[in-house]
């Protein structure tokens, strides 16, 4: 990351870096982003890859990439992996603050996905006043550890060297004194020297340059004006017209604007490039720096600028230029404001799927143009609020939306506005606000049934997370009824999935499965928006809590494939979350960690922070199980930072993670204090035990050790009722026996729990029941056998905290760490096959397919492998694995 002010030398440094990369035999992809890039999704990165040197057809398809972001990103990662398998690549982006929104998202994903591949990225940016997607990208990468080079002003010695180089002679103190006004800015210094030479105010005698004359430039604008004064009138006119066209323009377009033939402009272009005012980039002309362009533009008269902008708008339409570019010309021409607003709105709707924040900015620009009394303003406000909200800019959306609501709108427009706010606040995890907005929208009698269905659906899910299960179920039922009546099937599906969640939280597992199954049938039968809600997420979960793990795994696999095909990136973190829960239940903790870590990465890359919170809580719980309490504390701190912004999540995620960490580090009293909301929601809400049957005994154990027998009894009663309501779920029957066995210290009940967990395939819960049985057994041999089996399970699952406790109990020495020479032995069971396939030359995509993992999960495994081995190269990993295999074979 290269950061610096305008004209400080960032572009020069990037050109030098690219030149050095080419000389070293690397492929180089370069792009200087322009402000208009923000209105053309994917143009920044796609253009860089299409101009790669040496030329290749590997990325020719990117210009035709569709709106399916998920598929485009996946295909791009695969194409880059394939390309760099034969030649390393450097991607160089100048003026990165103008990077378009989709390119920024792609870079966030690709930097992580290709961290183990020979790809390096170089960015230059200046800090702009506004928080653009490009600025956010750079700040995020710096926070994640990317090194930043901050360019400052040149010192006095460097100023003298630069001035001497430009004029071709040693400069004296008169030159240096004038140069001091440029404050060490290389661009201004170079322009100043050229201006002095152009106007004859720099005299060279005996190899020494001296300033002469009285009218010396005092600002950058006057420096540029002096440079222009030495050029022909036709060249000055050409530069004025070019300054209106903006960042990069062709000779043909410039000729049309000036009403002449392209060939007639060649002498002027040659003069302007010789004076270093224009630069010929091969595919077009650009100013030596945007500061130069702005200085020239600012020096033009208003009438001339308006005329040029009017003609540029006509040319832009005929050349099918960006509607944003044409609209800006119209606005600056002083005419056709209404037409400009229409074009801005059209452009916003076009880019919204890939770049909602950019679309929102376009709509805000349109709102700046229309008056407060304009008949179109209410509809524009509603669209703008929706776009701001979907881009996560909630405070701005709320301010604009509330102002419009207080001004008074027609009921249908007001309801649509409230729906947009409700959906956005729900997506952002701010569930109380989502409930409020949805309820306000539902209070209008004239709301269409379709809008009403969507309002009910949002309210249903939001109320589940605020803890009101009765209303969550009722709202979900209303969403289903209204959605089916209005053929708003997406709302019907979403409402049913809310009912599935509420039923599961209340322990009605057959109802939960029935609602999720019906939602899936509707989505499969109707398709369209209904399918985009991916009800298989909740169907798989409903199957998993009943212990039907193989069916759930198959459902998750099919659902994930559908989401990749449909390009619904919002669902990716949820697939990781629920698949990780399945792996945890099966005792495959290393794989669960990689899956959850991948989910966090995807959620944060896509700014889906409401989904990052439960995933971070999952990482914290897994870290406690593995005995990594310092890591758990770090995950909890990250989770709290997001929750401090108003994100709410189910207590079974955040609160349970906090309680487990407190129990491991601060003791039972602290744990009880952290978990009080979970205890006090029982028996009405038993979701934690539904999802993790072994949690019941942990809750009893914590309450007993903290001296709270009443809450321990409550847990036992809740777990017993859950088991009675769902007699076919063997794990819940075992959980009831386990919880009561811990409370009563009853060996018989604990033996029932052991048998039940063994049959249900819950190894971690089984290990806990075995350890508890060892505590109460009067038979020392039996107690030791229980402890030995528990230790074996904990070791195989990677549950380090339990393993260490049992090793101490049994008087065992801690397991010896593998020798430094044994590379594969230092890796987990989940990491070894990934390392072996890397050694065989497989790409991440091929590894994911072979091991039935997502690409993000493979990325997560590789990050952990590299960290363990202290390396950062696939080639080195392959060599280490190969040497490890040779050494093992020889022994």
TrEMBL record:
* Gene3D superfamilies cross-referenced by the UniProt entry: P-loop containing nucleotide triphosphate hydrolases, Tetratricopeptide repeat domain, Winged helix-like DNA-binding domain superfamily/Winged helix DNA-binding domain
- Domain HTH luxR-type positions: 820-885
A Pfam match is: AAA_16
Q: Name one GO molecular function term.
A: adenylate cyclase activity
Nucleotide-binding keyword on record: yes
Q: Keywords for this entry?
A: ATP-binding, Nucleotide-binding
Cited SUPFAM superfamilies: C-terminal effector domain of the bipartite response regulators, P-loop containing nucleoside triphosphate hydrolases, TPR-like
Keyword Nucleotide-binding: yes or no?
yes
Which Gene Ontology cellular-component terms appear in the entry? cytoplasm
**Which biological processes are named by the entry's GO terms?**
regulation of DNA-templated transcription
| Protein name, as recorded | LuxR family transcriptional regulator
Q: Which organism is it from?
A: Phytohabitans houttuyneae
Its lineage opens with: Bacteria, Bacillati, Actinomycetota, Actinomycetes, Micromonosporales
């Amino acid at each position: 990351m290269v950061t610096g002010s305008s004209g400080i030398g960032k572009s020069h440094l990037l050109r030098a870096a690219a030149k050095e990369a080419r000389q070293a035999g690397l492929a180089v992809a370069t792009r200087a982003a322009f402000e208009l890039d923000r209105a053309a999704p994917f143009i920044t990165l796609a253009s860089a890859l299409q101009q790669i040197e040496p030329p290749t057809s590997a990325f020719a398809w990117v210009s035709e990439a569709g709106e399916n972001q998920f598929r485009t990103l996946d295909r791009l990662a695969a194409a880059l992996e394939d390309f760099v398998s034969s030649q390393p690549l450097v991607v160089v982006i100048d003026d990165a603050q103008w990077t378009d929104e989709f390119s920024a998202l792609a870079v966030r994903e690709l930097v992580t996905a290709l961290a183990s591949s020979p790809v390096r990225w170089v960015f230059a940016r200046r800090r702009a006043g506004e928080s653009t997607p490009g600025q956010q990208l750079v700040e995020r990468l710096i926070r994640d550890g990317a090194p930043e080079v901050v360019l400052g002003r040149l010192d006095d010695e460097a100023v003298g060297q630069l001035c001497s180089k430009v004029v071709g002679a040693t400069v004296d103190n008169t030159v240096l004194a004038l140069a001091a006004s440029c404050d060490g800015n290389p661009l201004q210094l170079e322009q100043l020297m050229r201006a002095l030479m152009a106007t004859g105010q720099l005299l060279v005698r005996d190899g020494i340059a001296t300033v002469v004359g009285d009218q010396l430039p005092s600002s950058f604008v006057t420096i540029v004006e002096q440079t222009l004064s030495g050029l022909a009138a036709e060249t000055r006119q050409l530069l004025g017209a070019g300054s209106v066209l903006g960042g990069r323009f062709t000779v043909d377009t410039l000729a049309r604007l000036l009403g002449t033939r392209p060939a007639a402009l060649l002498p002027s272009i040659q003069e302007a490039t010789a004076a270093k005012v224009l630069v010929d980039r091969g595919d077009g002309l650009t100013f030596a720096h945007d500061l130069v362009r702005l200085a020239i533009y600012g020096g033009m008269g208003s009438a001339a600028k308006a005329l040029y902008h009017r003609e540029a708008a006509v040319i832009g339409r005929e050349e099918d230029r960006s509607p944003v570019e044409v609209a800006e010309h119209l606005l600056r021409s002083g005419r056709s404001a209404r037409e400009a607003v229409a074009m801005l709105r059209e452009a916003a709707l076009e880019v919204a799927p890939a770049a909602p924040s950019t679309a929102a900015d376009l709509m805000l620009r349109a709102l700046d143009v229309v008056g407060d009394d304009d008949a179109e303003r209410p509809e524009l406000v509603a669209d703008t609020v929706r776009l701001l909200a979907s881009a996560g800019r909630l405070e701005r959306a709320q301010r604009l939306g509330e102002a419009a609501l207080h001004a008074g709108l027609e009921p249908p427009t007001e309801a649509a506005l409230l729906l947009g706010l409700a959906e956005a606040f729900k997506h952002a995890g701010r569930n109380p606000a989502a409930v409020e907005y949805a309820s306000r929208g539902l209070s209008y009698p004239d709301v269409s049934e379709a809008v009403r269905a969507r309002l009910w659906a949002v309210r249903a899910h939001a109320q589940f997370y605020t803890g009101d299960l009765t209303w969550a179920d009722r709202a979900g039922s209303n969403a289903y009824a209204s959605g089916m009546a209005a053929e708003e099937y997406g709302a019907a599906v979403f409402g049913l999935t809310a009912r599935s969640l509420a039923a599961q939280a209340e322990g009605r597992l057959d109802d939960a499965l029935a609602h999720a199954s019906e939602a899936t049938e509707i989505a499969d039968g109707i398709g369209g928006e209904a399918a985009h809600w991916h009800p298989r997420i909740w169907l798989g979960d409903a199957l998993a809590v009943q212990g039907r793990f193989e069916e759930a795994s198959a459902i998750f696999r099919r659902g994930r494939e559908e989401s990749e095909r449909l390009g619904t990136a919002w669902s990716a973190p949820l697939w990781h979350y629920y698949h990780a829960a399945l792996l945890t239940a099966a005792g495959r903790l290393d794989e669960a960690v990689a899956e959850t870590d991948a989910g966090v990465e995807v959620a944060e890359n896509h700014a889906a922070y409401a989904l990052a919170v439960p995933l971070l809580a999952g990482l914290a719980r897994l870290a406690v199980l593995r005995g990594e309490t310092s890591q758990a504390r770090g995950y909890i701190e990250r989770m709290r930072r997001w929750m401090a912004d108003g994100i709410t999540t189910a207590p079974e995620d955040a609160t349970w993670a906090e309680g487990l960490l407190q129990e491991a580090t601060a003791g039972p009293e602290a744990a009880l204090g952290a978990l009080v909301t979970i205890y006090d929601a029982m028996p009405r809400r038993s979701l934690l035990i539904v999802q993790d049957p072994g949690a019941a005994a942990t809750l009893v154990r914590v309450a007993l050790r903290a001296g709270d027998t009443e809450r321990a009894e409550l847990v036992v009663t809740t777990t017993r009722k859950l088991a009675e309501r769902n007699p076919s779920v063997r794990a819940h029957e075992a959980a009831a026996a386990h919880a009561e066995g811990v409370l009563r210290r009853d060996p018989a009940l604990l033996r029932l729990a052991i048998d039940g967990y063994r049959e249900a395939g819950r190894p971690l819960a089984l290990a806990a029941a075995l350890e508890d049985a060892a505590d109460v057994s009067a038979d020392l041999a039996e107690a030791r056998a229980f402890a030995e089996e528990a230790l074996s399970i904990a070791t195989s699952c990677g549950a380090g905290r339990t393993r260490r406790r049992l090793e101490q109990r049994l008087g065992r020495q801690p397991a010896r760490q593998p020798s430094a020479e044994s590379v594969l032995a230092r890796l987990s069971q989940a990491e070894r096959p990934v390392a072996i396939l890397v050694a065989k030359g497989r790409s991440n995509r091929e590894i994911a397919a072979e091991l039935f993992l997502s690409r993000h999960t493979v990325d997560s495994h590789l990050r952990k492998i590299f960290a363990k081995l202290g390396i950062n190269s696939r080639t080195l990993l392959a060599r280490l694995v190969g040497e490890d295999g040779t050494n093992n074979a020889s022994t």
